[in-house]
Amino acid sequence: MTVVLSRRADITLDAVHRVAWRGEGVRIAETALRRIAECRAAFLRLIDTDPDLVIYGVTTAMGELADRRLQPEERERHARIKAFAAATAFGNPLPERVARGIVLARLANFLEGHAATTPRIALAVAAMLDGGPLPLVPASGQGGAGEILALYPLFAELSTRFDLEVKERGSLINGSPGAAALLADSALAARNRIRLAETVFALSIEAFRAPLEHYDPALEPLWGDAHEAAALRNLRALLDGAGDGRRSYQAPISYRIVPRLLGQAHRALAAAEQAATVSLAAVTDNPIYIPPDEAGPAYPNGRCLSTGGYHNAMAAPALDDLAAIWADLCLLCDRHSSKLLAGRVSHLPDLLMVDRDPADSDGHGSLGYVPMAVTGYLEQAKAAAQRTLLPGTEAAGAGQDDVAAPAFLAWAKEERAGRCLDAALAMLAVIASQALHVTSRAAPPPLRSLVDEVRGTVPPVEEDRVLGPELGRLAERLTQRVFSTEEP
What we know:
The structure is a single chain. The protein has 488 residues and is mostly helical. Helix content is 55%, strand content 3%. The chain has a two-stranded parallel sheet with strand order 1-2. Helix 1 packs across helix 4, helix 15 (315-341) packs parallel to helix 19 (407-438) and helix 18 (370-384) runs antiparallel to helix 19. The longest helix has 32 residues, at 177-208.
């Protein structure tokens, strides 16, 4: 299938899922191509009719030479400069899906003419999504004031293949499509990760026999928060058909606050989705061209503005909030794992002593060491979840580029914290599965597919064995769920 783009608003989270995650192509509608051509013609009239006009990178040089005016005969030569010096980042590349998301988000500047480029460049960018491999974009070393260190490697081939005209090079490498794509990628993954977390915590609640009153519908109007209400509803649905014999008094705090923390996960997701939705459709070029019909009657050929639109201030805080909740949910996994394994707390048979003979055991057994690994992933998630503050950059000395864009830094931390949560959820799911196994209980119907998946990778522990490789495979399976290309 193909996603048809007529306007900026067509670049949505759903479009990112289809194009970046599922590999569908894009087509620019004829109406958009006509609009692009009309704006290009108006832009050329603008720079041809006003000899005193100052437009960064068009009538002036770029970077630290922005104060140097270009003569009309210099402009075309300046436009064809190949900015190879920008290709300095290196290291492990961004996932292909993220690179595809950046290319898709790049089209937001083009579709309604704000990039002021020729239609051929917009078509060439769209053609990059036709299924062929994309250039590698380093995930590390992204400390630029904008996103040129990521965008130039991605679009360098276009600047080599085409004789670029005025305004076109900047329209490829200026702006913040990277931040928009990173936000969208994390939001899409967060949808799946939250569903996964709800399922595993529901399994833990059932394994612990926590009182169902902790998740009662009467709490929804009392708490008064839509996100916490959604978490309560989802937990109740997953626990439909829960077994009896539950404890007659309250469970530990880590069980009672599950809906509150899952509510925060939903809240962080909603903020990330909103930021992604706005960012994907935003015009972030520098300079921005405002077409005549938007600029008003005083500007018959439109106008150009130099802006800081390429700095996405929404991205890092939204990504940080996701990373923080992943770390908090890792803590719940840590506490649930320990409580389930402590028979005096859970009132379950001693899951640690699988051989049931203290003389032949050190008192831990295979499962007894699992919470130690959960703690390790918890600490890694907490380290990754530190706040991303604005990074300064002295790359240009006392020049213009004095503040770096933080979105790539924040995304890398959110990605790490999320994968730590996947691992912690895998280990909690194994312990909860074991609790059901040793008590000969079946999971509620909505949780049975999860239990089957867990036991298919980590069978119930009947005697001590090395669990690390099995746990690793299960963690990877859960991460694959998070990045599943099925419809969200």
